[in-house]
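Input.
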Amino acid sequence: MRSAAVRPKSVAEAKKVVQHACERMVATGLVIGSAGNVSVRIDDDAFAGEIVVSAGGVPYDDLDPDDHPVVSLADGREKLGAKASSELPLHLGIMRELPSIGAVVHTHSRYAAAFAAARQDVPFVCNESAATLADRILVTRPYAAPGSGELATAALEAFARQPGSLAVLLANHGVVAVGETAEEACLLAAQVEWAANIAYLARTLGGETPLTPDEQAWIGRNYGKTFARERA
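Output.
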């Protein structure tokens, strides 16, 4: 995936990127208070194998970039900051298993969380659906508790069911969006929420009409994308 944005080149820059992403999630209504969390890789050989993860349990307006800890992917050890988000196992699991991605954003946006609570996938209903690079936004199965290693396993299994997809719903919980950069992942989380909102509203009008694979292909040709489909 190509982007004008680049991965942070230092710990200080990575911490600023995480803080900005946290503030952006609040400003765009994707989370409330200290909900949600972010992680980014550091594009610096001196910190190879380490990520910055958002600090946990504190409203983002009360945090500074230096509060976000550096965490080792190898052993989960935290340093250079406050205590990491309680969802650290989720970020570690995804970052370890998907080495090509540069950022993970986890949100609790309203309509996407409603689909997750209903344990229903979000269908491909509009242009914004194309951002996920998938036929549908899959919901994890079975339910896994917040902060658990099982949650990371469930998310990775959902990604694996539709290889190449960039977002999944966590059952009864929220959204996980991944990208080359935190900026991309935040935008994707917002697009997931938009698609979920449109699908919900369409149902109130009598039912949504998901785009067919052929119709998705028309969109894909326009944007230079192909869309992952769930494995049988």
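Residues 132 and 166 are 5 Å apart (CA to CA).
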